[in-house]
């Protein structure tokens, strides 16, 4: 057999050796706040389980299975697991939680165990068959499956170096076979370190089992023991070679010892084919390791450190000289069973072997120049061989011995994990470096089961796929449904206005200027009129001055210069009397209307403006730099000037009920309040916004209207509005999390626009 | 009547007073290089005259009429006139020119005068009727019509200040009536200054005319004299009021003295209605002044200075106290006729009145703080009253007296003006501040008669309209035919590659890095392989390093740092062996394929590389900063390094026929040569480019392929290519003006894409 260690070292393949694909499947039971299994159905909000890529149900209706897509790193895998948990935890009924234990501490009565309500008749029947063979209590056990694939480039490289008398596929299978052999031999180490099903109530055991198992003792992992969910003793499948494996498994099915190939349970499985026989031609694509208990101390069932540990544990299986024989594998299985039932606070019976194995891992890490972080993790595990109380089971038993009831502990942790998911309900942990609008869209897409590909997370670029239909989305709502010219039009305020006017919409008159002197020359055109002076194409209200009752030449010039600081072209526009509203159009409907109120505080006759601002800024919905639905109110030069205009300083105490404005502009980004106005707004204006969006050739648009009376319908003769801006890629967050009024889930509307066939 | 002067001064309306809309219609005859009228038809390349907004024919088939659209300034009007001339002059047959004189110095025989070949039967019949009444020689005369409209805001403002007992429309008509009255009274001043039809051959005159007109003398303007194209003596129409005007003109038609209302010729016309009667309800929208001869010394028939002069001349007609009576208008007409026939080198008989009028203008200019430029123009005109040789007619006569034959002079000028239009054939004068691709697109759109609206020239944003179908275009080829997501994808090289790969196209493998250290860590993955290191999203070849045979760690690190100077993310990509080609796709066709050869010179065994570069850079197609189809070759640090790699300095003398590369990258923007390869390239690759464009969701795309053998078809098994980049808004110029090979008029393809119904 190939000496992988030697090739990797001599051919400098360490970098490639460390690259891999990862995926996790994590089951757990939904429980009530008492710790008993929930009686409700799988939440309907998750849509159709028959295609859902992230949220399935395992055996029981109460047993969601969370599946991370294949990722290129452990970090990404963990992010996905976090995000899917965020979605599931925030989608559960208020009084439901995810049990952080593999074996429910309180088992339901047998007749209360409900097999998953699936669309497929065959899937339900298979589950009922399993109940008949294994009983239904063991089916209630949950665990984590860890999928692992080496970089195909590594395998190709090794193949080219080694030039074996085999096909590339067969060579690949040989590699995975070696890993599987050694895994079976050394899996007990993982059970020792990470086993976490320390107890089960009496009803868990089959009658004949209880006489053997000392119920009064804790175990490292009942789930990984012979009392776990294992095949009957007459099922034997060789892992010696692919051929042996295929022949054995087919024989087991033919003889009726297994009802189907998938009924063969092993802590490692060959993946990538539908039928075992296809392994002969396609080879093993990747491996699935099914050994892992839920770690109650990890919010998502497994610590990220442990995921890294497993990665290098698996690499070491390939690296090591040894390739376990059939006999050694049988031994390994026995060691694992024994380890599983050891008292968690006693040292391992195989401490020496474990320590030696981890030392070998450390040697490998040294050889491949692995990150220090990884080395530290392995050293920690190594220490746990001398400190059994540091193993997961050890920690659990310690907690119970210190007086904690296992059920109570589980419920407390479950509640804590759910509360953490609700801490920033507008964000999606795992992806919280992305824009909030994309986070919310991802939340909805995960919930509904759209396949997500993060094409570029720095660039907020994703694809969503339903069946064979793929759509690309950037920044939450930029899609193929818009024509390109639309955003190009909207990037240019002058062009936008010209086109809206051409199409018969009411826009304020304006002049465009390329120089201060040109703007000054036209000052006479604007004397005595309310005007707005603004840069041609920047956003967020920067450089905008508003003179409701006209500007003196001096103030006009000042404002012109301020605007020119933001852009090389500026606009001087008629000021329209009325209130500004943002209309959010998707497709042919105005989905939300928002009133934005300039940053303000309401006096109480006691506190100063400064104190009132500080108080208002304490709201967890207010943050900085678009990391929250609302922005904190600043107390800078502009705010100072604004309250000066009302006769105040920051130390003034406004009277009770009095509203003090801190800004003239109403942008949320400068501390304004967002107030949903969708239902109040007369439909005629909503229709106009839709028509404008169509005229601009886009599907998603944020149109800013000035409307003096929102309840009076617009007519051709008396339009009753002026449109002052149209924005592509408009902010969604302000509508989804308004300061006041109803939330409008625009991200769901985006999904409906893109995937009408899903009938969301 | 309102005292406009007083209101404008007291209410500070000077700025508004000076704003106006302008338009020009300029006729001229197509001539041969001998100065005789062309015998060819109106060029078919101009498409259909029945809707052409810019290029029509006047009376004769040989008489193009060039029409500028309404503009908000004289400068813009002049730009349009320039651009339309560029199109017409460059579209004429090689041996045809535009006669710069109002009256052809060589008249064709009567039976050789060809009435315009128009679609409309009625239009042709009307022209034939005109021939029957006026003879066909006078129809051959050309001139310039100047359309003028005051700013409606001015009229509204004046109306609100004055509050007359009239409707706004009637008030507007009163204003234009005053201007018309005073124009008729003082038009002779324009004839004196700008008259330019000094002679006509005998055949021009009706038999009864020749006995009166002293043919041996030059005139200021035969066209503006009684021998011009004027109504018969029995046609009388009052300008006293709208009512009188309408009644008179209707009576003339009823009595058969005019065949139709449009047969009423006057040096000023009321515009904005189809039938005179509509003036009573709609009012006068604007005025048309028809007095102007072609100025042979102005490339487009009238100097811009004179356009400005006319603007303020017209304003003064409103400003002055006087409102000419019927009697004074009749006098004015007589003064004009007399002035027209004066000897151009003698002072005006009405010098005092002319000088006084211009002094009045200067007072007005002072009052409204007009630009010094305008004041200078008026002073120049004033001086011409004391120096008749400075008038246009005066200059013409002086030239003839100095021995120039009028025909020869006209032909020489016509040739000069045509040559000027051909100086930068890839540009469009009038719009040469815009990008060249937009200039060429505008050229084609003007030629074919699409209505153009320059929405934002700084932003290269235009609209094109054919009948009721409007399309917007930015930067020459960004349109509604692209979906928005396509350009967003292409802005991101990583996303582009992922999506192309997902769709089954061959892309080189690559790694993406956000930090130097991450890129360095992966160096082992790239050792010994040809690689390209480049920033993720910048263009023009900046920051790209190519290592065809792999890079040392040192060079790798250097290249990584160079790439990071251009972007915060970089790519390390497999280097593909082969030649790079740019495929330009529009709709579902690859319209052009281009080979770009890195900046190079070919040795001659005599000259140094420096001399060879200087020589190559002399080509007028080579310029700087994208102001020409090719860029000059630089001799900077990078070029120095590149030739060093070939064993040279700039002072080396390469042997005859040897090609020396000055750059490794092939971008045209760094001096590369563009070679059309459309016909040579195997169709399979062209098909692939179309499929990729569709996969990216756009209509226009520039796809960069690496192809080792362009003549070998691509197959599924042996793709024979790698796609390395896809570009939205790809450069068109390099295909339209390649260094070698056939020109591909992609701008026409864009028009075909946008307006398939035009069948261009």
Automatic annotation (TrEMBL), chains A, B:
Listed A to Z, the keywords are: ATP-binding, Glutathione biosynthesis, Ligase, Magnesium, Manganese, Metal-binding, Multifunctional enzyme, Nucleotide-binding
A Gene Ontology cellular-component term: cytosol
**A Pfam cross-reference name:** Glu_cys_ligase
Pathway field: Sulfur metabolism; glutathione biosynthesis; glutathione from L-cysteine and L-glutamate: step 1/2; Sulfur metabolism; glutathione biosynthesis; glutathione from L-cysteine and L-glutamate: step 2/2
> Does the record's keyword annotation contain Phosphoprotein?
no
Q: Extract the signal peptide range.
A: none
Q: What cofactor does its activity depend on? A: Mg(2+); Mn(2+)
GO MF annotation terms: ATP binding; glutamate-cysteine ligase activity; glutathione synthase activity; metal ion binding
Superkingdom: Bacteria
Q: Positions of the region Glutamate--cysteine ligase?
A: 1-340
**For the ATP-grasp domain, which residue ranges apply?**
497-759
According to UniProt, the reaction catalysed is: gamma-L-glutamyl-L-cysteine + glycine + ATP = glutathione + ADP + phosphate + H(+); L-cysteine + L-glutamate + ATP = gamma-L-glutamyl-L-cysteine + ADP + phosphate + H(+)
Q: Which InterPro entries match?
A: ATP-grasp, ATP_grasp_subdomain_1, Gln_synth/guanido_kin_cat_dom, Glu_cys_ligase, Glut_biosynth, Glut_cys_ligase, GshAB_ATP-grasp
Stated EC number for the protein is 6.3.2.2, 6.3.2.3
Q: What class of enzyme is it?
A: ligase
Subunit description: Monomer.
- Which family is it part of? In the N-terminal section; belongs to the glutamate--cysteine ligase type 1 family. Type 2 subfamily.
What PANTHER family does the entry give?
Answer: GLUTAMATE--CYSTEINE LIGASE
Record-given protein name: Glutathione biosynthesis bifunctional protein GshAB
């Amino acid at each position: 057999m190939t000496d992988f260690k030697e090739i990797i070292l001599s051919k400098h393949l360490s970098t490639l050796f460390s690259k891999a694909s990862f995926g996790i499947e994590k089951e757990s039971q939904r429980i009530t706040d008492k710790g008993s299994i929930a009686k409700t159905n799988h939440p309907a909000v998750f849509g159709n389980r028959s295609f859902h890529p992230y949220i399935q149900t395992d055996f029981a209706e109460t047993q969601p299975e969370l599946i991370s897509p294949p990722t290129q790193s452990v970090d990404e895998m963990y992010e996905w697991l976090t995000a899917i948990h965020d979605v599931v935890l925030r989608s559960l009924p208020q009084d439901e939680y995810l049990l952080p234990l593999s074996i429910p501490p309180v088992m339901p009565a047998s007749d209360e165990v409900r097999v998953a309500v699936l669309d497929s008749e065959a899937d339900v029947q298979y589950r009922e068959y399993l109940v008949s063979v294994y009983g239904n209590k063991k089916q209630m056990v949950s665990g984590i499956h860890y999928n692992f694939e080496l970089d195909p480039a590594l395998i190709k490289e090794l193949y080219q170096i080694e030039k074996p008398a085999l096909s590339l596929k067969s060579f690949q299978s040989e590699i995975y076979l070696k890993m599987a052999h050694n895994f079976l031999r050394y899996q007990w180490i993982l059970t020792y370190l990470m086993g976490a099903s320390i107890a089960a109530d009496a009803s868990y055991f089959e009658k004949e089992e209880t006489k053997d198992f000392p119920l009064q003792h804790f175990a490292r992992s009942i789930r990984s023991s012979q009392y776990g969910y294992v095949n009957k003793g007459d099922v034997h499948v060789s892992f010696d070679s692919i051929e042996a494996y295929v022949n054995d498994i087919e024989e087991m099915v033919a003889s009726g010892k297994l009802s189907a190939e998938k009924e063969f349970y092993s802590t490692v499985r060959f993946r990538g084919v539908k039928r075992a026989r296809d392994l002969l031609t396609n080879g093993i694509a990747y491996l699935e390791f099914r050994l892992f208990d839920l770690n109650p101390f990890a919010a998502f069932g497994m610590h990220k450190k442990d995921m890294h540990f497993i990665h290098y544990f698996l690499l070491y299986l390939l690296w090591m000289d040894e390739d376990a024989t059939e006999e050694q594998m049988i031994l390994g299985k026995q060691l694992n069973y024994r380890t599983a039932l050891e008292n968690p606070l006693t040292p391992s019976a195989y401490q020496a072997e474990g320590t030696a194995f981890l030392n070998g891992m450390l040697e490998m890490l040294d050889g491949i120049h692995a990150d220090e972080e990884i080395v530290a993790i392995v050293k920690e595990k190594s220490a746990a061989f001398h400190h059994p109380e540091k193993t997961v089971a050890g920690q659990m038993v310690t907690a119970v011995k210190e007086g904690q009831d296992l059920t109570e502990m589980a419920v407390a942790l479950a509640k804590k994990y759910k509360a953490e998911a609700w801490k920033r309900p507008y964000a999606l942990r795992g992806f919280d470096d992305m824009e909030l609008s994309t986070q919310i869209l991802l939340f909805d897409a995960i919930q509904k089961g759209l396949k997500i590909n993060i094409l570029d997370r720095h660039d907020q670029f994703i694809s969503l796929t339903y069946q064979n239909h793929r759509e690309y989305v950037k920044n939450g709502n930029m899609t193929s449904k818009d024509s390109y010219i639309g955003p190009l039009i909207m990037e240019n305020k002058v062009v936008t206005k010209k086109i809206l006017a051409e199409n018969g919409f009411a826009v304020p008159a304006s002049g465009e200027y390329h120089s201060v002197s040109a703007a000054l020359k036209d000052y006479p055109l604007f004397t005595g009129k309310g005007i707005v002076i603004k840069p041609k194409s920047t956003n967020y209200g920067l450089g905008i001055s508003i003179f409701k009752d006209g500007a003196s030449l001096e103030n006009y010039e000042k404002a012109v210069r301020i605007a020119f600081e933001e852009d090389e072209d500026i606009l001087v526009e008629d000021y329209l009397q009325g209130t500004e509203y943002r209309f959010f159009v998707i497709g042919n409907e105005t989905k939300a209307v928002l009133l934005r109120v300039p940053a303000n505080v309401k006096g109480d006759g006691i506190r100063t403006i400064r104190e009132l601002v500080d108080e208002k800024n304490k709201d967890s919905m207010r943050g900085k730099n678009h990391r929250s639905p609302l922005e904190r109110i600043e107390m800078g030069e502009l705010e100072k000037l604004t309250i000066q205009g009302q006769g105040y300083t920051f130390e003034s105490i406004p009277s009770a009920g009095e509203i003090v404005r801190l800004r003239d502009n109403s942008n949320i980004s400068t501390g304004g309040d967002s107030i949903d106005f969708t239902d109040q707004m007369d439909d005629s204006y909503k229709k106009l916004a839709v028509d404008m969006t169509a005229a601009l050739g886009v599907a998603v648009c944020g149109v800013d209207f000035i409307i003096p009376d929102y309840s009076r319908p617009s007519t051709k003769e008396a339009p009753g509005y002026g449109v002052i801006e149209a924005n592509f890629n408009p902010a969604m967050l302000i509508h989804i999390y308004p300061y006041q009024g109803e939330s409008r889930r625009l991200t769901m509307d985006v999904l409906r626009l893109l995937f009408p066939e899903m009938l969301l």
